[in-house]
Specification:
heterodimer, A: mainly alpha, two-stranded antiparallel sheet, 25 helices, 2% strand, B: alpha+beta, two-stranded antiparallel ribbon
């Protein structure tokens, strides 16, 4: 419920103005991201390089999600679904101990999919099943980008439209599920505590940047192919409105699907929790079947407490207070939880195999679509450099990029791989994207000059941008990004060292642990390598200019 | 005579009470959940059902030890509750006032669990012998995991697609190399009219669209204003 408001606010304040900005820059400068920023100011060549590095990190870890989607997809062709029941233990007297402590879906995710280790430090070997799925995912990506960006465009038609069909099917199915209403009510009630948490705003901003493609340099590259007289303001407004309506529609659909499936799962869990409590009470006190129901449970509990106080107090640690709110509140965060929540909801539907196949196929389409965009963002500068393009055909360049990424991605298939994945997911793109976008806005408004930019737009589209855009570019967007930065840093300083969630096999739940030293170093390296490009680029250009000036003066 | 009879009956009753009570030695607790299993078709638990239960336990003991000495009267039930749960023991008629060891009873019930369950239209979960763990049937697993088969199929399709595209690309490349040579031949014969500008065919020029020199475009402030 709390996520919708920051999302919409971020879209209006950051998304649309920045989209317009990037399109205008690309169309005016008529070059890709590295060249365009060089034109605005030679000191900004680092911005383009930073974008490429961020795309590179992203492509390294993002394909692992596709590998997991493949894994679940291949396992959906069984009856019953493998995550529906616990496997038996070795002497067949009961279920596996780890699975008893937690739900079968979590057991399937943590043990049978990831085979996760206890902590980041204990990195076991590579899981061959996951490695196979990862190789397959990279082969699919290679197949799509093999023929260059032109062919990729055709593939994107399929990968972008199919998810909508599946989303609509799921919307209908989700809304008709038992308990869906609970989820929808939960979604539309805003939670004020969540709004004050800066992490919500940061993740909303990152979502906007990701979905619109800001800060990656791809928009500038695409816009550079437009004609100079293209009315990019109208196009930007139309595109961003269409994009935002589609985004809002798909996010409402996704939210309502997620929350109705969520409500279904929460209601289901709540009811089974109640049933467990009822069964426990009936068995301990030998009450007649049917005498305890959900309605009279609280009265019966008091009655039993009065009649048999000793046994009741002995039993009370096992009597959990079942609450629907608590079930709804279990956080929907992280990629792993997305797999767990949906697979749990799917296993309780009729014909679960069909819904499972549909869902994971849709997830694959979305994932492959994102991967194509990322890989294209890396490949374009590589194929543009004359040195490489002359010697190797584009198939070889694409193949080597995929191969290198696949080999690096094998890290994420080890036993501790999911922990490294979380590191990359949380730190590789978020800070860097914010910084890149901030530098872009400041560069265009203050270094290039907003009056010059206005004049350029005037020559291109025939009229100057109105006050709304100027205020957004000059003040609102940079201010918001700077405040996000401040929140982020203060949050980090306040909590001290960074922590992560590790899976404890003996308890069957997640526990919080501190990152070891070298993991913190990797995080620092991730953030630094992309953000430091900007000042380094400026420094390099400064040094080069100095040397040229010296050369000229000596002559 | 009557007194002796009364005395033996009372002794037997006391003995029974001692043999069968909760947590007695070699006693087992049974719990039935008839309404959960059968819903509307649930039958009521009465003396006849108890008789059937005693018969089934006696049957299980006979089948297990294959000596037909266990009688229905050897099975004692006690502490019936409304839940439907009770305790039972199996007495040994050959030795006076003792119970058959719990391990034998457990083994006998384990061996015949299916028959006992089906006599009552219940299953392992709804007819529970609390101290006797049931052997769960393992799920059916095919020899090769299903997912590997599907993985293999998809992998073959993708690899075939890649090979097809690469081979197609190589062929196109070869064709392009052949085409300039063909074109020169045709031009000599004057059959193909290719407009040429500065030695470069116009089509090629069109592909390389003119690049605007960004430096000039951005640097118009350098000109001194008039």
């Amino acid at each position: 419920g709390g996520f919708l408001i920051p999302y919409i606010i971020m879209l209006i304040v950051e998304g649309m103005p920045l989209l317009y900005l990037e399109l205008a820059v690309g169309q005016r400068m008529r070059q890709g991201s590295i060249g365009a920023w060089k034109i605005i100011s030679p000191y900004l060549c680092g911005v383009g390089v930073a974008s490429v590095i961020v795309s590179f990190f992203l492509s390294m870890y993002y394909n692992v999600i596709n590998a997991w989607a493949f894994w679940y997809l291949f396992h959906s062709f069984q009856d019953p679904l493998p995550w529906a029941t616990c496997p038996l233990n070795s002497n067949r007297t009961g279920y596996e101990e780890e699975c008893e402590q937690t739900t079968p879906t979590q057991y399937f995710w943590y043990r049978q999919t990831l085979n996760i280790s206890e902590a980041l430090e204990t990195s076991g070997g590579v899981q061959w099943e996951q490695a196979l799925c990862l190789t397959l995912a990279w082969l699919v990506v290679y197949l799509c980008i093999l023929r260059g960006t032109a062919a990729t465009g055709k593939v994107v038609y399929v990968t972008a439209s199919l998810p909508y069909c599946v989303l609509i099917i799921y919307l209908i199915r989700g809304l008709t599920l038992h308990g869906a209403v609970n989820g929808l009510i939960y979604m539309f009630t805003p939670k004020l505590e969540q709004l004050s948490n800066p992490k919500t705003w940061i993740s909303a901003a990152t979502q906007i940047f990701f979905s619109l493609g800001l800060g990656f340099g791809s928009l500038i590259a695409f816009a550079s192919y437009n004609e100079p007289s293209n009315n990019c303001q109208r196009h930007a407004v139309v595109v961003s409105l269409i994009n935002s309506t589609t985004s809002i529609f798909s996010s409402i659909v996704t939210f309502s699907i997620t929350f109705s499936i969520y409500g279904f799962k929460a209601t289901f869990n709540y009811e089974s929790c109640l049933n467990k409590v009822i069964l426990l009470l009936m068995n301990t006190f030998d009450l007649e079947e049917g005498s305890l129901t959900a309605d009279n449970l609280s009265e019966m509990k008091e009655y039993l407490l009065a009649r048999h106080p000793q046994e009741y107090t002995q039993l009370s640690p096992q009597l959990k207070n079942c609450s629907l709110e608590a079930e709804l509140d279990t956080a929907v965060q992280g990629t792993g939880l997305a797999f767990i929540v949906y697979s749990e909801a799917i296993k309780n539907m009729e014909v679960p195999q069909l819904y499972s196949v549909l869902y994971f196929a849709m997830l694959l389409m979305l994932g492959i679509g994102s991967m194509l965009g990322n890989t294209a963002a890396i490949l374009t500068p590589l194929t543009d450099t004359k040195a490489l393009a002359a010697r190797f055909p584009k198939e070889v360049i694409a193949g080597s990029v995929c191969f290198i990424n696949c080999v690096i991605g094998l890290i994420f298939t080890t036993k501790a791989g999911n922990y490294w994945f979380d590191i990359f997911n949380d730190y590789a793109a978020t800070l860097s994207l914010l910084l890149i976008v901030l530098v872009e806005t400041i560069a265009v408004c203050y270094i290039y000059g907003i009056r010059r930019f206005e004049k350029d737009l005037h020559t291109m589209i025939g009229h100057k941008p109105n006050l709304y855009w100027k205020i957004m570019w000059a003040f609102a967007s940079p201010l918001l990004i700077v405040s996000l930065f401040v929140f982020y840093l203060t949050d980090y300083i306040l909590t001290g060292t960074l922590q992560y969630q590790a899976w404890d096999a003996t308890q069957g739940q997640l526990v919080t642990k501190d990152y070891p030293g070298y993991a913190l170093a990797v995080i620092g390296l991730l953030v630094a390598s992309s953000t430091l490009c900007i000042p380094l680029g400026a420094l390099l250009t400064f040094v080069r200019k100095r040397l040229k000036r010296d050369d000229v003066s000596t002559v | 005579m009557l007194r002796v009879l009364l005395l033996t009956i009372s002794v037997l009753a006391v003995a029974h009470a001692e043999l069968c009570k909760p947590d007695a030695q070699n006693a087992f607790k049974v719990r039935l959940s008839i309404k959960t299993a059968l819903g509307d078709n649930a039958y009521a638990w009465d003396a006849n059902e108890e008789y059937l239960f005693k018969a089934m336990v006696a049957f299980a003991m006979r089948r297990y030890s294959s000596k037909s000495t266990t009688q229905i009267s050897n099975v004692l039930l006690c502490n019936m509750t409304g839940r439907v749960s009770f305790w039972f023991v199996v007495t040994d008629s050959s030795k006076n006032v003792t119970t058959v060891p719990g391990s034998e009873v457990e083994a006998a019930i384990r061996m015949n669990r299916n028959r006992i369950n089906s006599a009552f239209l219940l299953n392992d979960k709804t007819l529970q012998f609390l101290q006797i763990t049931s052997t769960l049937s393992p799920p059916v697993e095919p020899s090769t995991p299903v997912w590997l088969i599907i993985f293999g199929v998809v992998l073959c399709l993708i690899v075939a697609g890649i090979v097809f595209l690469i081979v197609g690309g190589i062929r196109k490349h070869k064709k392009k190399n052949k085409e300039p040579a063909e074109r020169e031949n045709l031009e000599e014969k004057g059959e193909v009219n290719v407009t040429v500008e500065n030695g470069i065919p116009c089509e090629v020029l069109d592909l390389k669209a003119g690049h605007i020199n960004g430096v000039f475009a951005a640097d118009d402030e350098r000109f001194t204003p008039l």
